[in-house]
Structure formats: C-alpha cells, structure tokens
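A quick aside before the break. I want you to see a complete sequence-to-structure record at least once, exactly as it would be stored in a machine-readable document. Don't worry about memorizing anything.
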Amino acid sequence: MVGESVLRTLLAPEELDRDLDQGVQHVMSGFTGLPLHPDVPDGVRALRDLGLRLVTLTNGSTAVAEQLFAQAGLREAFETLLSVDDAGAWKPDPAAYANAARTCRVEAAEMLLVAVHPWDIDGASRAGLSTAWVSRVGTDYPGHFRPPTHTVRALPELAALLAG
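That is the input. The structure line, written in tokens, reads:
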C-alpha cells in the first residue's frame, strides 16, 4: 500500500515506542476510528438521490473507507471504493485520477472530484476533472493552486448546487 510505504519512510528516522511495523499499523488503524464530518451523511444521500455515480478515491486503504461508510450506513451509496494503490501513484499524481477514470469507464472531464484538500483539487484539475472544494471552515483557497470549479461549505450545498 502506498500510504503504508510513505508512513514507513516518515517514521523510520523517528524514535518510536514500538518497532517500525507496529508503529505503521498503529497509525493506520487509527484512521478507522475517525468519525465522518456531520454534513457527510446528508450530503452523500442528497448526491446519490440526484442519480450521480458516487465513487471514492483515497490515498489510504479502501478497507478504511469501507469501514467508515459502513458504520455510517452509507456504504450502499457508493458504487465502488478506489485506492491509489491500484494506480501505483499517490494523489495528486495524474496517474491516480486517470486510473479512477479508467476504472469507472468515463473520461476524466466527466468526473467531479469532491475534496477538502486544496492539493487534491489542484491535482484533479490538472488531470482534467471538474472539482468541488468543501471548505467547512470558510478559509480562502490557496492562490498558488488551480481554483476549484465549485466551492461549498458543506456537502449538502454541493447537491443543491448540482441539482440547480
């Protein structure tokens, strides 16, 4: 897994209270305990109700996404859960987005990446995708990145925007 490999590189020079493999697994397992943001369940359902195909693309493990969405009762809303592991390149590398488009059997220009990370918005835009930045805290978008196609404060706002 790409994420574990990167984490292994980052943790290797650090003094840990366990061996490196255990440290990597400890950090990775912590992701499964993270809660979804409060706007996600209603937003996902609203987007799905629009008839959109919903797919995830994570730099992490699809197992983590699977668990998070299953716990929230949202797994069935997603057609598939993708990881950059399948592309062999971590976002924002264009290969990650291109692999998602191939897997979904659509052109990149037909896809909309929704993210909270400006670097992900920038990478997807450079790969030819439309983008939606969820800026929950209302900060300014960094000017050194390509701007998002849409900016919203919460996921349900995106569904309303796309429905309009």
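Two observations worth writing down. Helices lie at 2-11, 20-30, 40-49, 62-71, 94-104, 118-126, 155-163. The chain has a mean pLDDT of 93. We'll return to this after the break.
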